[in-house]
């Protein structure tokens, strides 16, 4: 009898405890994150300016306008290009450097493969950009790209390439590539560290066996390292894709305009920002946001589908 | 996930302990040597590409404005410290630093406390709606923040939280909760149940068990996610750019730095501008070098499942 009493009392206390611990996080999360997301979808069907409290429902008008908006399609094109190029280069370099760090070293006694000496130091340096605010990185490169006094062109002059001094951010054909270079520069280190951690947990005798069988080191990369790291690479792909679909800070801080000459660095996030907070078209801006969400979900779906493989346990 | 991180980051590397012995002559030996030279060459090249822009900024911060233009890669002829003074006081860098400290102190404390509480309850208790709430939180990781930004701006405006630090703190907490809860609930699930049960049988309340038994046990996980959140919030640019625009003096460090770049650039004070940039850069880099193992583990923790 007594035991049941204690039990139900405990049960009662348990629910009070659960509610007490969840109420504050859920309230903050609901008010500042969930509700704005839901509202965004609602506002995308209105003609709200954001300046006055009045607005009316306009159905799919914002989406029709999107469909015919050249700048929107330009921004989508840039985001898709970033989505294709950025993960490929960033993850590629990350895998390459991580493999060099872990397998590229001189052979030692009793070890088929070895990491290079000082791999810890390389990783410390590679990770530098990752701890800096994207605002710092974007400003730094805005100055570095300066055609007259910037670090890059004065370096080109220094090595005798005085005739090749591109206008970088001022050149519509180059500006977007400058943006990509900055994003690659700041993210490679993260993936080197991430992949390196994964690689160092692959048992060394896997490599030993493959090398004894006559494989060279580059074959071991594709036959052993990459398949065993696949899960991590896939996660990295999603991370980098989300990065590519953003790009707000780099475009806003670094590029001329901002948005580049002739909209050459316009991306969805920055276009949304200008529509909402400069042009007073909050309704249209949220429609842009919904479009961005759709691109994001399609991308995530593709990665999940393409990336599905049998999980290798070791 | 956390255990995995522990193992890969913490275990001594076998090759570090092995004595360095020249490999025997032969095909593999010479291949190894060529490869070794190649690896170091490539790795050092990327190392230079990472450090040179940073180094260039540091050099420029000690130069006169003329030198910045005429000899960008040369060492400064004399160490000019005056730009640092200008950036620190005239261009309000000291103010921006303080503002960021105030906001991040509040938001980081709130994130860790509320995140750990929610994660603990969701990981260790069964109750109706548990899974729904968990996925509601975790789902927040996959939505583009910019989509919520327009309505969020007006939510804040209606609550009179726009351009205020409490407002920013609440928003930072809200946008940090998804990852914090995802990571910490995974961590709490791996902790043994016996200690908490013993505490409850001894008459400790659930709340007391959480604060005095479970939180100390979760310390490694809290440190990882704490570093992750600290850097994310300290470096945050998008949210304050939209939600904290009222007063020049209330800007946070990253947005203040961008404002400084505009104002000093306008005045032609390039050295002051670089001094501001380096001032914002060096403390984070220094802290990172000291705690590099923890920082690397913390930032990659979410991706290493």
UniProtKB/TrEMBL annotation, chain B:
Superkingdom: Bacteria
Primary location: membrane
Domain ABC transmembrane type-1: 97-291
Transmembrane annotation, as ranges: 43-62, 96-120, 132-155, 167-188, 270-291
Localization in the cell: Cell membrane
Lipid bilayer topology: Multi-pass membrane protein
Protein's GO biological process: transmembrane transport
Biased composition range(s): Basic and acidic residues: 1-12
Region (Disordered): 1-24
A GO cellular-component term linked to this record: plasma membrane
Annotated InterPro entries: MetI-like, MetI-like_sf
Entry keywords, A to Z: Cell membrane, Membrane, Transmembrane, Transmembrane helix, Transport
Family: Belongs to the binding-protein-dependent transport system permease family.
Protein name as catalogued: N-acetylglucosamine transport system permease protein
Taxonomic source organism: Streptomyces olivoverticillatus
